[in-house]
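Progress report, Aim 2. The chain analyzed during this reporting quarter is listed below.
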Amino acid sequence: VSLDAIIVSMDKVNVLFFGEEHNDSIGHYLESELFKRLSIAYPAKVAASMEMFHRDIQTVMNEYLAGIISEKNFLKEARVWNNYKDYKPLVEYAKANKLAVIAANAATRYSNAVTMKGLEILKGLNKESLQFIAPLPVDTATGRYYDKFIETLGGHSMGGMKVYQTQNFWDATMAWSVAEYLKRSPKNKVIHLNGRFHTDEKLGTYAQFTRFAPKATAINISCFSAADFENPNWEKYKALGDFIIVTDPKVKRSY
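Predicted structure tokens for the chain:
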């Protein structure tokens, strides 16, 4: 399927969840390209939402996109990831074209608190802090997502339960950020970027989004490198998303 076919499929869809591998250079290129093509198809009606930025730096993001603060200050105060170079083209495109970028994730100080003390600790946050996270209580539905997570962790443990709560906290906060944006701009479209575990099989962030915005529509992409790149086993991958992108594992990773 072509990238333009994905854009066409967005006709009656509010959100495109793009699940990436964080060091997949081809995936990063495709994200930027989809964002550009989406913005051309729907002028001034597209935003990017990113796991890579925390909600509490939204003002910093807005100031940078508006050309008010320097890149040097932005890089420092937005607490960018070590591989920010992978996402810079998308952010710079948004800046040049006056498009919104949603800093979607929960700040590390909150996710660390949940990992150490569980979701209950969030009840102690004041009103000012609560604006930076999803509404409480955070849903931690068991089932397929839980089973996948425990499998990834390598088994059950009390510490593992808190890590699972943190995962759900991330999911809920990112989903809430997208839902909140669409509430303000219901006719706009969002491409949300996150690690693919968050949205594969329409679980995690995708599932949380459907709770927060039941009337909104969404599709998802799962993008990853695979050993069977030259002859992919589509049957094995088809449950992961509406669109599956398999990239060449021989292409150099971004880190």
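Residues 42-105 form one domain. The CA atoms of residues 141 and 226 lie 30 Å apart. These observations will guide the mutagenesis work planned for the next reporting period.
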